[in-house]
Amino acid sequence: MKVRRKLRHAKTHALGWSVLIAPALLALLLAGCLIGLWGVVSSWTRDLPSLDNADAFAYARQSYMYAGDGTTLLAEFQLEKRDPVENSRISAYALKGTVATEDVRFYEHDGVDPMGIARAVMKNLAGGRLEGASTITQQLVRNTVLSEEATDITIERKVREAALALEMEKRFDKATLLNMYLNTINYGDGCYGIQAAARNYFQVDAIDLTLTQAATLVGIPQSPTMLNPKEHPEACLARRNAVLGRMLADDVITQEEHDEAIKAPLDLNPEQPAPYQGIHAYPYFTSYVRDKLLEEGNKYGCSYADLFKGGLTIYTTLDPSLQDKAEAACAQQNAQMAGGLESSLVAMSPENGHVLAMVGGRNYESDQWNIATQGGRPPGSTFKVFTLIAALKAGISPQVITDCTSPLRLPSGQTIENFGGANYGKRTLASATAISSNTGYYRLAEKLGPQEIIDAAASMGIDQKLPSLPIITLGTEDATPLQMTAAYNTLAARGVYRAPVVISKIEDAEGNVIYESPSEGKRVLEEDITGATTKVLRGVFESGEGTARGFGPSNGQPVAGKTGTSSQFRDHWLVGYCPTLTCAAWIGNRDFSPTPESLNAHALWGNFMSRALEGKAPVPFPVVPDPHYTTLPAPEPEEDEDEEKDEGKDAEEIEGKDPRTAPNVVGMQVNDALSTLAEYWVYYSYVASDQPSGTVLSQSVDGKAVSIRVSRGSP
């Protein structure tokens, strides 16, 4: 019996100890779980992004590009349709409707809503529709600082999101948080932010949203793709009505407003789709500027992110009026040509190097290759300008006699010929330029040496590697119309080279100027050399034999320039200038196939320049003294009767106007005199005189020819 009592007593004591120990063990277990959970949570939140990062809440903003007038929109660059606005510029319906729909206790919690979480858990456990219970602040976190983790459907991400939301609520007031949310949330169709959505779907500003419009937008973020009103109008309408119900339940609207709004259709008024590549106007120029901004290490300090997300405002140099005239001239030229022939044109300002107009082909949408700036084409005889400059710098007078006989057979067996096989005989360098003698310029290039030509071209912006061969004087190596325009623009600017400027200024999203184009250029030629070059190149337009005679501007503006044709007539050029404008015109096929021999770019160039200068008074070229020439024309024998007889015999073989009708050229420079007497057969000889070298001293009739004597300066 005693034993039994002891056993019962032992059992009673064991039961008592169990009652005491079990809770303690449970408490220890729970504590361990909590400690472990805390450790896990701590590890999850150890590397949270800093809210001090200036870029954490930076909105991606689209950039705008304008023409030189500051108002003509050329392009918009954006990854997202976004236009941040303050709360004062957002409809009250949208502000209050967002809170009523997305986070009804927004103004009560501290970033995380325990009641909302409990409600979501109960509904999810009950088998109802899944709910996430994310507050507006949590959604803001997910769309900004945790955007890279937004697609992770894990407890860890939710914990990190909640931790950051609690921290954000300490830093920002509710109005700021709501504004940040409304400017970042996805409203479908590529729209981020309520202003962009309002413009996209209804073409109104966010402040002007009606009740039904605001409710439509408020409902979209739940599923931006499936609730896009353009693609899924019925689903969007049902969601809008659900939003109206929540707004009614939260006393945002009255029963009467609710009932009336429920009956209304979506009534969308969508914006037109964005233009191709975001380019609104003048695509060849605009795309060229865009590509310059995206070049690695560009001088503008612009990156891909800056252009497409940084909210830049880019002001270009394009003159819309001149661009329209350039396109009209090219369109007229294209209409007159058969097949796939195209035209290209670039115009620049000598004052500052601004590119004022650019046409890169017939149709940008069908072919984005920009003839004006990409690849290059053989510039033909327009390249002779660099040989001319090299000759003038070497002290060779434009009146030096040059051998322009054709053909010229080289030791290699190659043959150089003038255009059409013409034999121009011996004539001055100025005259050889006006008629564009290939043989004369080849011989001159041999005399100068190719490196002098290469150096002259390089100083004027032709920076590609050129072979050290005399043949380069004939324009055998590629150059773009933009390069050739900039080179000739140096002559119009009296020897100051300016690299082509296409961007005048860039402002950041806050309106700060982050780039401004320099105004200064680099002097690469002395003024006397540029003045002498211009005098010679005027002969191309003014000489009776000039290859561009009659194609100057219609307002009478004096111009200078050079024509050019590449091998097998694949390319036709005219590059020319006046004191206020430089232009390169090109015609050819994109595929480099030959074109008709009769084709040239003269009419295109003259058409554009006439349009560009219409109504403007002619501006004379500046008067510049000639450079000092060390290589002067050799004096001709004055009393060699046999030679005069031989010359007279040659004269009889050439038809010329009656010399008795010739205008008086005494006092003119010899080149101008020869241009004036282009329709006459002319004898001229040089004599020592106190008059400046090259001045015509006397004029007389000698048989069928006009005879003039020219000063070669003091003995």
Specify the biggest β-sheet: 5 strands, mixed
Percent strand: 5-15%
Strand arrangement, largest sheet?
Answer: 2-1-3-11-12
Shape: elongated
Figure out the total of helices. 22
Explain what you see:
This protein is α+β, with helices and mostly antiparallel strands and 715 residues long. 38% of the residues lie in helices and 13% in strands. The protein contains 22 helices and 19 strands. The strands form 6 sheets. A 5-stranded mixed sheet has the order 2-1-3-11-12. A 5-stranded antiparallel sheet has the order 5-4-16-15-14, sandwiched between helices. A 3-stranded mixed sheet has the order 17-19-18. Helix 2 (92-102) packs parallel to helix 8, helix 14 packs across helix 16 (438-448) and helix 15 (429-435) crosses helix 19 (527-542). The longest helix has 43 residues, at 2-44. The chain is elongated. The model is unreliable at 1-10, 37-41 and 639-654 (pLDDT under 50).
Break the fold down into its secondary structure elements and pairings.
Elements: H1 2-44, E1 63-66, E2 73-77, H2 92-102, H3 114-125, H4 136-143, H5 155-171, H6 174-182, H7 194-202, H8 211-219, H9 233-249, H10 255-263, H11 283-294, H12 304-309, E3 313-316, H13 320-335, E4 342-348, E5 355-359, H14 384-393, E6 401-403, E7 408-409, E8 415-416, E9 426-428, H15 429-435, H16 438-448, H17 450-459, H18 481-492, E10 496-497, E11 503-507, E12 513-516, E13 522-523, H19 527-542, E14 560-565, E15 571-578, E16 581-588, H20 602-613, H21 641-652, H22 670-676, E17 681-687, E18 696-702, E19 705-711
Helix pairs in contact: 2-8, 2-9, 4-5, 4-6, 8-9, 9-10, 13-20, 14-16, 14-17, 14-19, 15-19
